[in-house]
Amino acid sequence: MMEQTSFAAWLFLPFVLPICIWAAWNDLRAMKIPNKAVIALALVFVLLGLFVMPWPDYLWRLAQLVVVLLVGIVLNATGAMGAGDAKFAAAAAPFIALGDLRILMALYAANLLAAFVTHRLAKHTKLRNLAPDWKSWNVGSDFPMGLSLGGTLALYIAMGTYFGS
């Protein structure tokens, strides 16, 4: 059972899922997560979060956004993370119930591995011809983290619809 409520997950899912797909697609295509996607994701939480959680929980979740953004800024400054990835992670943070952090980390690890292997296999096979102009094919060892960040958030919210409290 997840700490995330099933009610919140069902309400967030139709809005979060397309944004996650958009962010992943753009990161694959251009190696950039659009600021519009980050802002849209944050607005979904700011607006809908008011209706699905008590005020103190809502404020704590917004604090998570700030903390993750500050950590992301530091990671970006050290070259460990792209700016778009840091902003997307910050905008995604309020959707995560703190009690589900273990579930999220396991989901992220599995998703990151699957996304990396899938991307690298597609890059070196004829699947690449389906999207020959994607920048992510030609950036050396860089990886479009939006694929795994967006995928993780989408899967977490989707899991919450079934396993949520």
From TrEMBL:
Keywords: Membrane, Transmembrane, Transmembrane helix. InterPro entries: Prepilin_IV_endopep_pep. It comes from the Bacteria. Gene3D superfamilies: 1.20.120.1220. GO terms for cellular component: membrane. It holds the Pfam family Peptidase_A24. Residues 16-117 form the Prepilin type IV endopeptidase peptidase domain. The chain crosses the membrane at residues 7-25, 37-55, 62-83, 103-122, 143-163. This is Prepilin peptidase CpaA. It comes from Lentibacter algarum.
